[in-house]
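seq/struct pair 1
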Amino acid sequence: RVPYVVVCALHDDEDAVHTLVDKCAHFLINYAKAFKEAGADGIIMAEPVSGLLSPALEKEFSSPYVKKIVDAVQDDEFILIYHNCGNNTHLMTESIYSTGSAAYHFGNAVDMKDMMGIVMADNSELALNELTELRSVPALPFGGRYRLIDFILSNMVNSGITHVGLITHYN
């Protein structure tokens, strides 16, 4: 019932909804930090309202606050897995991926063929110095005619994911 009340409030008082969601985000940041301080490696955070929102409302009232939580708690030692299983999820992938979560879970309401695969190509943790001086890790040759990215792309295509984005931090 609470998510329904929040969605209805969007039409009456957007500022109040922003205030409420911001307070919830701060509460969740403190909650996640408590898990982190207790030695947890991460959390799974379900977003119950965004599945009821249009993509435009999700982009305004959900993703920025999820990103705020991710930015406040996620690091090399603690990850946040973002869960969203609404029927509109496949229309919100860009906004959802912009949260920067370490991983995503989309539930059974989502057809993976509608989702876009994202490959994070981060060289910062690897000690491949000379090999990655002029190219990113996915572009490294492997087995003669292949590149490392070929294995990832093959797995995605064989799983029905045909829309793929590659994000590199370097080169």
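seq/struct pair 2
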Amino acid sequence: IYSRSYALTTYPVMVAGVAVGNVAVPALSRLADEEGRRSRYFWRVFSLMALMSFPLTGFVAASADSLIRVALGPQWVDAIPVVRWMALFIPYYGLTAATTWLLMATGKTKTMFHWSLANAVVIATILIFSVPHGIVAVAAAYSLGTLLVRAPVFFRMAGSAAGISLRQFFR
């Protein structure tokens, strides 16, 4: 149930992200030495990912029942609350993708590595404490942990490396 819910929830933003990323990474790389232009382009890409991600969150959360029944069939109704919880982290995937593209384009791979280590610790902690309480608890804990811990830490680390304040990300 969890893997199907995760795939159903994240697939649209990942597909859109691949399309946008295929254009954004080379463009950001070409602008690596032009901070002003690179910054403006990054915020356009970031805004585009937000524009796709936030409405998708509302759609998936509101239509989880119909989405599950149509995409997976009535035997998957137990996935409905899982998908509703998972919908909350859709923007995280879209916005971190855009920010990761900036880090890649500016050669900040060390920051990406450090983020991966911190992220692994956070996810492992979430799973250790939520798994005993069932699949809906795992989805809730993962989503809330993403919003309350993973996102702020990522944007703080990435922002520091790229010269962007945490406030700028959430304006």
